[in-house]
Amino acid sequence: MKGLRLNTRQIKIRDGIVAYIIIFISLCFFILPMIWIFYCSFRTQESIFTGKIIASLKGFTFNNYIKILSVTDFPRYFVNSVKISSLVTILSLIISIFGAYGLSRYDIKGKKIVILGIFSTQMFPQVLLLIPLFLVVFSLNLMNSILGIVLTQLILVLPFCLWMLEGYFDTIPIDLDDAAKIDGSNLIQQLIYVILPIAAPGTMVVAFYSFVVSWSDYLIVSVISQSQNTATLTLIMRRLSSSLLIRWGQVCAVATLTIVPTLIIFAFVQKKLIEGLTAGALKE
Amino acid sequence: MDKRKGYFLIIPAIIIMCIFTLYPLIEGIRVSFTDKSMLRAKYSYIGIDNYKQMLGDPIFWLSLWHSLILTGVVVILQLIFGLILAWTMKQKIPGMPIYKSIIMASWVIPVAATVTIFKFMAQSDVGFINIILKSIGLKSLVRYWFGDPLTAFPLIILLHLWRNVPFYGIAFLAAMQTIPASFYESAEIDGANAFQRFWYITLPGIRNMIIVMVTIHVLWTFNNFDFIYLATGGGPVNSTDVLPVYVYRQSWDSYAAGYGASIGTVMLLILSIYLIIYLLIQERGEYKR
User: Between B234 and which of B57, B119, B191, B241 could a Cys-Cys bridge form, CB atoms 3.0 to 4.6 Å apart?
Assistant: First the structure.
């Protein structure tokens, strides 16, 4: 018995060492690239072009940020991105909260077909939808408008949001609704005062998901946006990194400012998001 | 009365999905039988001519081949590395909570930013990869890694791994944590070795999660457009052309919407076949049990 115990301890130590080696390699692979562009966003063009990893102190500067914030159109694109992503988040929250509540609480005919239908849209190749989408947006007179982009991006997020929230609402006892109903509150009051506080974690996940998917979208924006008034950060990033003389310091600064908002929001909802994402597969 | 309220609540979602997904899908399939161009409003039905043209189009076949290889290789590698990562995160060692909280960062950031990061790292003069290669004396390997037909495709695979492997790891970890510890204890008493424990306890325990992750990522990778379009545009010399990028180029660069739509329809067909096979296997598995 004693021998066995020592043995398991040895295994534990061995496993620990292997784990640390994997952790080290994976951090280099997954995190180093981000640190590298963050680091280079504070270096001058000359410093970057020395081809050295450690730059001399002279090579550091805030100029990249100052330049992109003052000289280029970056602030405008940033504001566009914020506007579009916020609108997508708000609209998808409203639509999916109502929709999921309807699916969860009411005996809707063909409910299964509705859910399956909405979910199967995730399989459609976006590039195929894009041609007719362009025409739909065009005929709605929403070409090159924020609203056109927002409405189109909704299809990227709604299926997940509806599914996620429906699962959440299902876990809330219907007695709570009834109690609120007896107290004389209407549907909106029920949602705001009874359901949403309990479903807050799920709602946060849905909001994060909508924001980040919209923030990251390139495909839809590339077709519907046709001027600086509607262009977003993902568009300018492509333009910057494929021009002839590339100011890498500025590109890194743009990339950093594009990445950071998503990371900050993610830090807040990480745990709930992972729970939400994995819950569906674990239920069965 | 109550029932009507339910419909009323779900209708906005259905309207949006119908206008912006269902209608475009049907319309896209319809357009695939026409000679529609993005340059003119008039077009006519040409039957299956687009599909005939596809059969004789070498770039289509090349893109199809690349798409299948990319999806297969990427998903298999993600699965393997995801399992390794999940095993690592299961170890109770100091620092693990911090590691877990930062490892998903690459999954959250926009694909366009990922591509920008790697484009910068792959530059022949200022790129991180080449600086390292030079410093360890492998100067002959220095190149713009996206610009070389030999290395562009493997680098694209690497980008997919970079983005999704942490998500696999976290998802598998969540599944592993639902397996009761007593299973492992009794296996240990029976003298099962590490591999046997993995094969007979861990793998069946996370089977569902594996199926879900693979299904999601086969669809995601096969349909993914921005990684390749933003990194290489399908080049150099078509060495990274995949179906979504080819459809986009046909419809928006060559303005051949009809032809592009027909390739998109074929993509949809391939995915439908994949899903049908998947459902059949799933059903048979249930039946056996």
Answer: B241
Q: Are A136 and B24 in contact (CB under 8 A)?
A: yes
- Residues 6 or more apart whose CB falls under 8 angstroms from that of A76 comprise A228
pLDDT in tens, B214-240: 988 999 999 999 999 999 998 898 999
Give the number of other Cβ atoms within 10 Å of residue B119's Cβ: 25
Question: Over 60: is that where the pLDDT of A284 sits?
Answer: no
Distance of alpha carbon A204 from alpha carbon B14, whole angstroms: 22
Interchain proximity B6–A105, CB inside 8 Å: yes
Q: Name which of A46, A73, A51, A103 is nearest A247 in CA terms.
A: A46
pLDDT at B81 over 70: yes
* pLDDT of residue A2 exceeding 60: no
Are B12 and A102 in contact, with CB atoms under 8 Å apart? no
Instruction: Give the helix ranges, DSSP H, for B190-238.
Output: 194-197, 203-205, 207-223, 226-231
Cα dist from B20 to A132, A153, A155, A224, whole Å:
9, 9, 7, 13
Contact B111, A219 (CB under 8 A): no
Residue A1 clears pLDDT 50, i.e. is over it: no
Q: Using a CB–CB cutoff of 8 Å, tell me whether A63 touches chain B.
A: no
A24 phi, psi to nearest 5 deg:
-60, -50
pTM of the model: 0.90
Distance from CA of A139 to the nearest CA of B (A): 12
- Report the residue from A118, A130, A219 with minimal CB separation from B17: A118
A164–chain B nearest CA distance, Å:
14
Cis-peptide, bond into residue B110, ω within 30° of zero? no
What three-state secondary structure class fits B64? Answer: helix
- B8 near A CB under 8 A: yes
- Predicted pLDDT of residue A171: 83
- Chain A residues with CB inside 8 Å of B211's CB? 281
- C-beta atoms surrounding B7 within 10 Å: 13
Query: How far apart (Å, rounded) are the C-alpha atoms in residues B31 and B22?
Result: 14
A126 with B260: Cβ contact below 8 A: no
Q: What is the pLDDT of residues A228-281, one digit of tens each?
A: 889 999 998 888 877 777 889 999 999 999 999 999 989 888 888 887 777 766
pLDDT in tens, B189-203: 888 888 888 889 999
Q: What is the mean pLDDT of chain A?
A: 87
* Beta-ladder partners of B34: B45
Least confident of A65-69, A116-120, A245-249, B92-96: A116-120
Check: CB of residue B188 under 8 Å from CB of residue B106: no
Q: Which of B120, B174, B264 sits opposite A251 (nearest CB)?
A: B120
Pull the structure tokens for residue A269. 């909802």
Nearest to B275 among A123, A240, A251 (CB): A123
Question: For residue range A163-194, what is the model confidence (pLDDT) as tens digits?
Answer: 888 888 888 888 888 888 787 778 888 888 88
Tokens for B125, please give them.
Answer: 């003069």
